[in-house]
Amino acid sequence: MARILLVISGGIAAYKTLELVRRLRERGHETPAILTEAATRFVTPLSVGALSNQPVLTDLFDLDREREIGHIRLARAADLVLVAPATADIIARMAVGRADDLATAALLATGAPILVAPAMNPHMWAHPATARNVAQLRADGVRFVGPERGEMAERGEAGLGRLAAPEAILDAIEMHLSRDDRLAGRHVVVTSGPTHEAIDPVRYIANRSSGRQGHAIAAAAARAGARVTLVSGPVTIPTPPGVTLHAVESARDMLAAVEAAMPADIAVMAAAVADWHVEAAAQKLKKTASGPPALTLSENPDILATISRSAARPRLVVGFAAETENVIEHARAKLARKGCDWILANDVSTGVFGEADNSVHLITADAVEDWPRLSKEEVGHRLVTRLAEALSDETR
User: Fold this and answer.
1) Closest by alpha carbon to 378, among 140, 164, 133?
2) CB 373 within 8 A of CB 339
């Protein structure tokens, strides 16, 4: 059981937090709440308190409440602070460190992890000011769940801005609270990022992968107690704590590093490996009157298929399928062709590379699971949960 301080700000989605409070209480969590002044226009302290059976505060200058509870004590006693819904306004005030009402004062005073579930008009979410504020909060260590795509309260409005579904928020909460040993004693190998295939000393073939999804999976496995080997192509994101990094450049380098890391219990091949390479020139290629040089492409080794069929094959091998059309059909074909156990498939035509969120389908030999749009951290957590369950079922 955890103590989750819920901060409700004044968006139309505030009414959805009542269901969230009910479900958190069912799971045994305590949910004291703070409502902003605007939030009280959409839900009442009475309704929130009746569902949570916990204190509900609204006023920074309520002397009786402050004497009894105290916003500083309330903020510091929390295991997690959840801001849901988080409007553009409260995100902006959090980003600059405002403390001019009870909600922002508590957010500034807490030492607990903060999870933010945005909900606003799509144009507000896409505005450069909101993007800057979200980037600042991420840099400060604040985590986000959602928003999701869908219809808005405004007639005829649709897009990215809906409050994340309760299941997605609950998954994100459990991810933050979980520090467990589900994969204790297991060795997990994860590949991440792009590969760079040299053309000459200054040019290379690459792709748009940021490595965020692979790194998030490695981080989730480490939190679950696994010994994690992360084999990553060139990325600009930090190495997750508790993992061993092997930095590589090319697909051939990556395969060698993965094979050297064996044996393993689980291999998750999340890297976006280049399919082809060229024989790199020793010197920089120059422009000539005869036109551009002819580049002869050669096929790179198939890392996923090689590991799936190796004598040192891990007990579970998971591949990724980044597709732009016919996502499920292509992923099923890849599953059969590569010989792996599962495929996580996603549609990258919507700009997944480099984004904070992902929407994937878990493909197995028997089924397809459609996961909602989640942060890449939550995708990692959910995948690790499924992997731990699969290994546990094998040992029963």
Assistant:
1) 164
2) no
State residue 143 phi and psi, 5-degree precision: -105, 155
Q: What is the DSSP string of 340-353?
A: -SEEEEEEGGG--T
pLDDT at 218: 94
**Final residue before a domain boundary, out of 177, 203, 234:** 177
Provide the annotated active-site residues: 207
Amino acid identity for residue 120 in this structure: M
Amino acid found at 234 = P
Provide the strand spans (E) within 58-205. 80-86, 114-118, 143-144, 148-151, 158-162, 187-192, 197-198, 204-205
- Name the nearest CA neighbour of 3 among 23, 25, 24, 31: 31
pLDDT along the chain (396 residues), means of 10: 91 92 90 93 92 86 60 80 95 94 91 91 93 89 83 71 87 74 93 95 89 92 91 90 90 97 97 92 87 89 96 96 85 94 85 70 93 87 93 73
| Residue 260 lies inside a defined structural domain of this protein | yes
Using a cut of 0.70, tell me whether the model's pTM lies above it: no
Residue entry with tokens 């060229």? 278
> By residue range, what is the domain housing residue 226?
187-394
Same domain, 311 and 170: no
pLDDT the model gives residue 83: 96
What CATH number does the domain containing 116 carry?
A: 3.40.50.1950
Residues 191 and 269 in one domain: yes
Give pLDDT, residue 179.
Answer: 61
Q: Taking the mean position of all CA atoms in its chain, how far away is CA 217?
A: 9
Please tell me the total count of domains within the chain: 2
Q: Are 228 and 244 in contact (CB under 8 A)?
A: yes
17-26 and 166-177 helices cross at what angle (nearest 10)? Answer: 50
